[in-house]
Each structure stands twice: as C-alpha cells, then as structure tokens.
Amino acid sequence: MPSLDMLLEEIVTANRILAHEGVVDSFGHVSARHPDNPKRFLLSRARAPERIEKDDIMEFTLEGDPVDARGRAPYLERFIHGGLYEARPDVHSVVHNHSPSVIPFGITERKLKPLLHMCANIGHEVPTWDSHDKFGDTALLVESVDMGRDLALAIGSGPSILMRGHGATVAASNARHAVFISIYLEVNAKLQMQAMALGDIKFLTPGEADKVISRTGPYTLNRAWENWCRRAGRPYQAELA
Amino acid sequence: MPSLDMLLEEIVTANRILAHEGVVDSFGHVSARHPDNPKRFLLSRARAPERIEKDDIMEFTLEGDPVDARGRAPYLERFIHGGLYEARPDVHSVVHNHSPSVIPFGITERKLKPLLHMCANIGHEVPTWDSHDKFGDTALLVESVDMGRDLALAIGSGPSILMRGHGATVAASNARHAVFISIYLEVNAKLQMQAMALGDIKFLTPGEADKVISRTGPYTLNRAWENWCRRAGRPYQAELA
Amino acid sequence: MPSLDMLLEEIVTANRILAHEGVVDSFGHVSARHPDNPKRFLLSRARAPERIEKDDIMEFTLEGDPVDARGRAPYLERFIHGGLYEARPDVHSVVHNHSPSVIPFGITERKLKPLLHMCANIGHEVPTWDSHDKFGDTALLVESVDMGRDLALAIGSGPSILMRGHGATVAASNARHAVFISIYLEVNAKLQMQAMALGDIKFLTPGEADKVISRTGPYTLNRAWENWCRRAGRPYQAELA
Amino acid sequence: MPSLDMLLEEIVTANRILAHEGVVDSFGHVSARHPDNPKRFLLSRARAPERIEKDDIMEFTLEGDPVDARGRAPYLERFIHGGLYEARPDVHSVVHNHSPSVIPFGITERKLKPLLHMCANIGHEVPTWDSHDKFGDTALLVESVDMGRDLALAIGSGPSILMRGHGATVAASNARHAVFISIYLEVNAKLQMQAMALGDIKFLTPGEADKVISRTGPYTLNRAWENWCRRAGRPYQAELA
Fold it and tell me: Are the C-beta atoms of residues C132 and D222 closer than 8 Å to each other?
C-alpha cells in the first residue's frame, strides 16, 4: 500500500496526465481509494484536471460526503466514485471522463471492442449505461448515491463503461492502470471509427484479449507512466512505497 | 456589472482563449455590451484574436460606428454584434467564428443538435442563415446594418446560428458563457460528424437539454474558464467585480 | 516593389509560416520573383522549410540555373517556379507543397471547390495535373524545364493546381497572398472531405467567389500574416518597403 | 560504417524523432545492426522512445540475448529485430511501432499501397502478418525467436509489414531510411483512409514507385533528418563518420 502522501501526489499526476494526453478537457476526474481506510476515497475539489494540486484533494465517504471540506466545493459527480468503491472491493482507482472518441459509441448502436493489443484492458466489449432508462430526463450527471449505484451495477465486474451522451468511466486496481485503460480506450475508439469505414474488422479474439490482460503489470504500466509523467511535467516515482 | 476595465481584460482573455482552443484562427471576434451603456458595445480593432491587447478594444454604437477610433481600423463585420445587441436585451456577449467542424453543417442539409451534455447550451437545434437568400451574391461578410439585423432575426431567441459558407455566431449573457458555447459547439459538430458515420444517433432529449441549460452557471463556467485562461497564458479572475 | 533584402526576409518568413501551419513538412518550398530583375527568382537551397535562413536563399534564372550557387545544392523541383514565372508575368510568388488534405483530391475524381469565403482565393475549381499523362513513369518530380512548362500550361491563369500523387502548387502576386491561398487550400480540402460525408454540398456560387477574390487585399492578408509571423517566431513587418 | 559511438547517438535520435512525429507513443522501438559485428544488434532497454538516452542502448545477439545487461530490462519484443537481422544481410536498422493510422489496415482486408511519391519507399503493397495463423491465441507480442523468424519470413525482401492487431515493422539499410519509411507509412495510411472515402484511388504505378525508390538517398533523407532532429531537440550530424 502506498502512503497517503505518495498517493495524493499520484492523484495529482494522474489528473495532469489525463489532461495532457487529451482524455479529459476542463472536466472529468480521477480518484483513489484511501490507502488506510477502504470506506473512504480521495478526489479533487471541483477543478479542471490540468490545474489540480495536492491541496485540492479531498477525502469522501462512500456516500460522497466530504470528511473535511475546508470550504472546498466538491465535484457534483463524486457519486460515480463512491458507487464503484462500494460495489467493487477490487477497485482502488476510478477515472471519469468525456474522452472525445468514445462519445460516438455511447450514442449509437455500435459496440466498442478491443482491436489492438494495447487496448485489450478495456474489456471484451464495453457496455453502455443510459441514465435515461431509470432516471428519465436529467442533466445526465451522476448526482446522487442512487445514480452512482446504478452505474456501478451496469459496469458489473468489468473495467470500463460508456455513459450515453456523457462520457465513460474506468475502474481499476490502481491509478496507473486506470489511466492506462482510459488512454487506450480513447485510442481504441478512434481506431475503431476509422477501421469501420474500411470494412469488417478482425477484433482481438477473446483468448488474445485475456492473454494481454494477464500480462499487464508494472513492466508495461511503468514504461508508459514514466513517459506520461515527463510529458505532463510531473516527477516520476518508479514505485509507490 | 463588471467594471469597464475588468471587462476589457475579459474581452482580451476571451479572444486569446478562442484562439488557443482552435475555435478561431486569424479571423473571428468576440465582443461585449458596454457595462455602463447598453447602446454601446466593445470589440477589438481588426486584428487576429491571438494577438489582441487591451488598447485594441474599441467602442461602437449599435449601428457599428466607432465612438473614438483613434486611427484604429475596425472589423468589417462589426454589424453582427450590433445587430444582436440591438435585437436582444438579454445578450451581453457575442462570438463570431469560422470554427472548423461547424462549417460542414452550414453547407449541407444535416442539422447540428446536442449529443453530449456539455454541448446542450448550443440550443435544441442550430439554425443556418444563408446570406444569399436575401442578399444574393456577396462576399458573404455581414458588412451592413441590414445584414446584421437579418442575421439577428434568424437567430431569434436562440444561443447560436450557423452561417452558410462562412461560420457561426454565438450570443450569450456574458463572455464566459459565449466562449463556453463556442468551444462546445465545435466539440459537438466534430462528434456529430463522427457519430453519423456509425449509425443513427441518440441525441439529448429536449428535456435533458433543458435540464443541462438550467444548470449551467458559474460553478461550471468558471471551472473551464480558469483552465482556459492558464492554457492561453492569461490571468484568471474568479469574479468579475 | 520591396527591396531585395526585405524580400529575402519575407521568403524566410513564408517558409517558416507554411511549416508552422502544417502546410509543408520537411519538403515543399516557396519562391519570389526577383524585385529588380523579372527574369530571375529567389528560392532556398535544398533544405526543410522550417530550417531555412536568409543565407539559404539562392537566385535562379527562369530555366532553373543558379546564378551564384556558392556550393549550395538547389531543390530538384526549382523548375516548378521557373515555369510559372516564365509563363505568368502577373505571378511574383510560388508555393509548392504536399499539403496533407489536398492529396486525396489529386488522386481521385472528386473536384476541390471553394465552400468557405476564406477559401475563395483557391479559384472556382482546382485543376489536377498528372505528370504521367505526358511524361509516363517518373519519380513524379518536376525536374526539368519541360515539366515545369507543362505544369504552368495546366494551371493556366489560375491561382492553384493539384499534382497527382505529389501535392499542389500555388501562384500569386506576392508571397503573403501565396501563403494565404496555400493555407486555405488545405482548410478547404479538409472541410470538403468532411462535408462530402454529410451529403450534397452548397459550394460558394461563382459570383460569391469572385466577390471575395476582388476584396482580398492587405486588410485581410496582413491580419493573418501578423498572426502567422508571431506563431512562427518571426518579426512582422507591416509593409514591404 | 559509422563508429559505434555515433551510431548509439543515432539510435537515441531515431527514437526521439519517432516519438516527436507521433509514430510511436510510449511503446515501439528502433534498433541498428552493430557496426563492427553483423551478428549483434543495438536496442534500448525497455523504455519509452521519448525518454531514451545513450546509456539505455544494449547489445544483443541475433537470438535476443543481452551481451552485457548490467541490470537493464530488455524489451520483450527484441526478437523482431533479431529475426530480421538474421534473415536479411541488407538490413541495418529496424523500427517497430504501433503507428496509429496503419492499425486499421492490419485488421481489415484493405491493402496499404503508396499513393504519394514521398511514400513510395513503403513498398508496392504492404503485407500483413497475423500471429494467430501460426501461434494461435497469444498476447500478440513477438516474444520468441520462432515468432521473430516467422515475421521475418512474412516480410520477405520488402521494407515494411503490418502486424494484425498490433502495429508495423520497417526494415532498411540505415536508421535514417527506416525512420523515413516509418513516418511516411503513417502519412500514406492516413491519406489512404481519407482518399478511400472519396472514391477510387489512382495509386502510384509500379514504375513510378520504383523510380522514386531508386532516387531516395542522402539528398532526400538528410533534408528530413535535419528537420526532425531540430524538432525533437537533438543535434544534427550531416554525415555518420
């Protein structure tokens, strides 16, 4: 388990990377489960990911209540994170974004599926959650515990989900993996739109996807993480002590 | 009401942001209604948005006459702004641009409609104004009070309009909102072109769009504005005093 | 007429702008007719446009012979420039590029036509020259006086031409106009590819295009030029003395 | 033959260029045959191309065994390089990448063929290797001598090959040529996707492609190399002594 202090730095870095790599714009967020208390999670105050600093990171209960707000306004959609940490003990980091290339898949019938080995970790097929099904006309924001739980139900045990007219959410066992999946979810979506225009696609076989997933560990994640840190102007720490 | 001085800085910032985010190139402009005189508006001299400084901002009557030109050459299309301020007391800021992804919608039959919650503020469906309908063969520029009034008539009470073979115009109650709509109009157009290639699109329902619009205030606008300011190398002022 | 010294700086700037705006990559070039001798033109030695400095600019006869090479290797395709200056007394600057979005139009039957007022200066319809028609299997380079003359014949009195499997060439009365046309030729091509996927396009009418062309002068060109200079890190001189 | 020291710098530069030009992201690699021992090749330790420094370059046997690892972890896919150096005495540099625009061609039936003179060096038609044909469900990585040899068999005497669901590999007589082909393979793929949407494509004739290939030497390669070096922040050395 990383120390709280190192994890706070990791969350800042994750936000900056997602912004620098074009997966979030002024909106979107990334959280981590508290390293010392699995009933709490860490998430920035309402601020653009590219601007976030360590003091912006707040602590929340799984119901989305700030533990010590100190005047900081939280994201409305913190319930995405709480819902997933509540439902999924295996999840220690969550990314929510409006990653541009995934949007078209959330609003049409076409299914997003891995077509490149780097993208196998998005899951065999990415499901779509439509808030309208259960909640009707809303501002499409996940702004209550109920909505967060419904989204968590829809993602099931998978790593990623699309949200109709809204974006995507990724859940993983640590922040580096969550960021990695988020970036390659965007890559896969862009490539799939292009490949669909060329003809029938030979996607990864389920066996291939599973082989790649079983192989994805620090050897792979840290190579990307070091590079993304430097590109985003953040220090790289090889190991989370 | 912001002070004149702060509003001048706001206009400079708005220009720089639109340039940095790729919504304007060397052309396009953004204005604000004068804070002390609703019959006047503020707009830069004829200069690329990325280069504009405070001394470039001129004052105009609603008919587009410069109040104190001091040798500065105005934009030919200042009548876009005058026309809208004259027709719409609710409007305090106007953006005109040639935002790349919106052009294809202005020259084909396809209608631009919101498909992402961030884009609901573009309106339920963006109308198109074709200068040729009333004015015939022109250089497509809005270069007279008549043309500005005709454009204002076409936009009606809406927030945005496309101009055939030319670009788009956005009208809002303040500069931050006008910039926000302009940026997400580009986002929506790009996404809609991509999604149309995948199949039938599930757009936002009218009820969803209205919910999002009713929610869009400083909490949302300032998060983006802070980020865009920093990206464009401009200071961020939380409140317009 | 600008002085030779100022024109040399202008050519350097034109090269840097075209590279910065993505119209040329490591290849492509821009020339100007000699201000004191209409039988000569000025063109860099064989070097990437982004790297060119004043001492790289060489003087050539219209047949492409270097006047004082001083060990500098010329571009193989200097005959593009010589051919145009020979055939067209009205032409004082020529750009040759492999601008990405124009390539698809040079290798298919679709015609590139202006759809945006900013792009009217590309001409009513851009013709395509196929070196294979007259010269058979070549390396597609314009590497002789004969080929340069054939290309000049194909462009006729127009401002731009596509070259099959190769790129485009633009001819104008000065470097600012040639750069302007080159940049908006790329813009038009990209937009036309996108708009074609949406349905039938309402292009500019011939009358509209002519109105825009007749209006394009220093008021328009210099606004863009100032901006492009600054973006490319080059000083801006308002007037060519 | 370049000295070992200069070649190590050349490999660093090649990695940085490929990253800067968007042909590799955090993954992908470039190697060179050892200048003094044709049975050895030089390749970085497992690190993102944008980060590689001289001390990262390791020496390998053609079977992929590190000669003096000194604790440095090698790329899993070093067998791509060993396989090609073993099979092809003419090859002195190999690039492996996940270049974005080539992926769609590796997973559909559409063939990648040169349509622009700059791209003739990719070969008359780029073949595709599918690891599944012989090795079944794998993580798609070339992680054994057997797989490397199978890939080398598939590329035959050609300069480039696509790898289904994975990326591409380029083989050339020196690093500058391998980088050049890799960059223009990406360019060709992107242009071909766009042109296919416009209609039937007039590709280069075989005779044209051969003419271009026979012409591609230092005059062409170094013009691009100088530019790419400066863009990537690396010194340019005109000749490899």
Answer: no
> For the whole model, what pTM was predicted?
0.97
- Cα C62 to Cα B165, C9, C41, C66: the distances in Å are 39, 21, 7, 10
The confidence score (pLDDT) of residue B207 equals: 98
Which pLDDT belongs to residue A1?
66
Q: Bridge partners of B126?
A: B112
C2 falls in which pLDDT band (50, 70, 90)? confident
pLDDT of residue B1: 66
Cβ atoms B22, B179 nearer than 8 A: no
Is C47's CB within 8 Å of D223's CB?
A: yes
Short-list A96, A79, A92, A89, CA closest to A25: A96
pLDDT at D99 over 90: yes
pLDDT at C240 over 90: no
Separation of alpha carbons C216 and B179, rounded Å? 28
pLDDT in tens, C44-77: 999 999 999 999 999 999 999 999 999 999 999 9
The partner residue sitting opposite A202, judged by closest CB among D107, D137, D139, is: D107
| Cα–Cα distance measured from residue C179 to residue C168, given in angstroms and rounded to the nearest whole number | 12
- Taking every pair of Cα atoms in chain D, the longest distance, rounded to a whole number of angstroms, is 55
Which residue in the block uniquely carries the two structure tokens 């979810």?
A: A185
Query: pLDDT for D33-70, tens place per residue?
Result: 999 999 999 999 999 999 999 999 999 999 999 999 99
**DSSP helix/strand/coil, C33:** strand
User: Which residue in the list A21, A53, A63, A77 is annotated as catalytic?
Assistant: A77
Residue reference for tokens 């499901």: A127
The CA distance from D73 to A136, in Å, is: 53
Mean pLDDT across A136-144: 98
Query: For residue A50, which of A14, A99, A15, A94 has the smallest C-alpha distance?
Result: A15
Residue pairs between chains C and D whose CB atoms are closer than 8 Å: 97
Q: How many residues does chain B have?
A: 241
Please give, one letter per residue, the 3-state secondary structure of chain D.
CCCHHHHHHHHHHHHHHHHHCCCCCCCCEEEEECCCCCCEEEEEECCCHHHCCHHHEEEEECCCCECCCCCCCECCCHHHHHHHHHHCCCCCEEEEECCHHHHHHHCCCCCECCCCHHHHHHCCCECEECHHHHHCCCCCCCCCHHHHHHHHHHHCCCCEEEECCCEEEEEECCHHHHHHHHHHHHHHHHHHHHHHCCCCCCCCCHHHHHHHHHHCCHHHHHHHHHHHHHHCCCCCCCCCC
B195: chain A residues, CB-CB within 8 Å: 103-104, 107-108
Residue C238 has pLDDT above 90, yes or no: no
pLDDT at res. D1:
66
Chain B residue with CA closest to A108: the answer is B201
**Nearest residue of chain A to residue D45 (CA atoms):** A223
Neighboring chain C residues of B100 at a CB cutoff of 8 Å: 187, 190-191
